[in-house]
Design goal:
Strand content: 5-15%
CATH architecture of the largest domain: 3-Layer(aba) Sandwich
Shape: elongated
Mean pLDDT: 90
Oligomer: single chain
CATH class of the largest domain: Alpha Beta
Distance between the termini: 77 Å
Largest sheet: 5 strands, mixed
Number of helices: 9
Order of helices and strands: HHHHHHHEEHEHEE
Structural class: alpha+beta
Amino acid sequence: MQIDKAKLPHYVGHRKRQKEKFLNNSSCSFSDYELIELMLFQLIPRKDVKPLAKELLNKCGNLNNLINSNQENLAEVKGFTQSVFMNLKIIKEIINRVLAHQVLNQNVIGSWSALLEYLKFNMSNLRIEQFRVLFLNKKNILIADEIMANGTIDQTPVYPREIIKRILLHEAGSIILVHNHPSGNAKPSNADIDLTTQIINACKTVNVSVHDHVIIGKGEYYSFKTNMLL
């Protein structure tokens, strides 16, 4: 039996054309929603997924916000499924590992911009405060990145003695302190400054230096060292 192509849904030919265009090294010409649409092709067969791709992007504003969005927020979009969420999380983790490979076991002082990209990707969209410590050896090689505490929207409980324990475990020569401000404003609070001083004093007892304290905001960051607070 011969198929009447005129009666086929319009998206059948569209899918084929988009896939061929992408595979023929034309990926850079794709808009953001078209990339999401390509992903949805693999998850939702026999359906026009362009409206869903556009709605997901409109809901979040950009690709970065989309892959960092939570399931509850995206569930408000008609047509959204757990499989779609799973694939967004896979994409996020792949990007995270690519960025991590550029800084782990590397001299992070000499590749500062790559370190900031890694930190901003991981922390700029968090809805609660998170405090991390980057442990460096005596050659400034990043040997460990650890989340020391997760808190509320405006504070995180951090204990200098716990940081010292991890320093001794890793035999670190220096550390970099990092936390985020979910409000988006990266400027340090008085509590941030006081905590930094406490940690610096604690580190002196084990002959370890604090290279910097970096605060991650929305699209910005604050360096204690650059701003002469360290």
